[in-house]
Task: inverse folding
């Protein structure tokens, strides 16, 4: 079981890094000092978003497709949910300089536990029998 979760988790972490780097780049907030020349060359959010879409976000989409192709959907979906929530929290802390309060930490922990619980329930849920039985006479 763990052998399926770890590589799927690595793919999902990579996916969300790519997607959220693309979002931050489009907003002009990804490494603003280092990429100042690029932001000057592409001054609009639309232009930066298009550049991100055909580079880093495209890689993120490839990684999520690879994850869903090679691992069960309940594992990938659970990890996707967890990584999305974690990415949003990390972006708010790093980009908007939000201080992590005890409330934010508790809510983040609760979301992580709920995502884990969801993964557990999805993994143990009964599957539907999709085979059609035909009566032979």
Result:
């Amino acid at each position: 079981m763990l052998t399926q979760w770890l590589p799927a988790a690595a793919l999902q972490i990579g996916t969300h890094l790519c997607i959220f780097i693309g979002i931050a780049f489009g907003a002009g907030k990804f490494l603003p000092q280092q990429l100042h020349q690029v932001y000057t060359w592409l001054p609009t959010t639309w232009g930066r978003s298009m550049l991100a879409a055909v580079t880093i976000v495209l890689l993120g989409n490839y990684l999520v497709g690879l994850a869903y192709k090679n691992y069960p959907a309940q594992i990938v979906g659970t990890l996707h949910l967890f990584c999305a929530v974690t990415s949003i929290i990390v972006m708010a802390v790093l980009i908007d300089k939000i201080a992590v309060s005890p409330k934010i930490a508790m809510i983040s922990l609760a979301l992580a536990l709920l995502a884990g619980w969801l993964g557990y329930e999805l993994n143990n849920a009964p599957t539907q029998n999709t085979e059609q039985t035909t009566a032979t006479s």
Observations:
- The chain has six helices and no strands.
- The CA atoms of residues 78 and 124 lie 13 Å apart.
- The chain has one domain: 2-124.
